[in-house]
Task: inverse folding
């Protein structure tokens, strides 16, 4: 069984409207468990396989690339429940990830050896 990691990300935007737009953009992410907005902050909880730990940490080290003004990331590596996380895979794969990104040209693919999003044609998992 693959080890899971939980990431709690608190991101700041200049306004409530921008926080809501960001939440709307990310709402179909395969790894997103919970998303909430309060004032100019977005609170997101993701569950990812251990190999994607870097993906959870990335918004804190380079928030502008992820669309955030700044971000705090809290990692929880001892996930008790759920024991497995079922991805919300779409019926058909597309060229664009549910968040709107194009994995074929994403800089993270080379920088972190990212396999891409499992919802796209470009996934190499």
Result:
């Amino acid at each position: 069984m693959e080890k899971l990691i939980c990431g709690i990300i608190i991101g700041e935007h200049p306004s409530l409207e921008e926080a809501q737009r960001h939440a709307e953009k990310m709402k179909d992410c395969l790894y997103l468990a919970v998303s909430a907005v309060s004032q100019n902050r977005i609170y997101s909880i993701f569950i990812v396989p251990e190999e994607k730990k870097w993906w959870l940490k990335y918004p804190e080290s380079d928030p502008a690339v992820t669309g955030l003004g700044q971000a705090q990331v809290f990692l929880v590596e001892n996930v008790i429940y759920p024991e497995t996380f079922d991805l919300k895979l779409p019926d058909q794969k597309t060229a664009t990830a549910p968040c709107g990104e194009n994995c074929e040209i994403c800089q993270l693919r080379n920088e972190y050896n990212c396999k891409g999003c499992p919802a796209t044609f470009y996934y190499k998992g």
Q: What stands out?
A: The first helix runs from residue 16 to 26. The chain has three helices and four strands. The two ends are 16 Å apart (CA to CA).
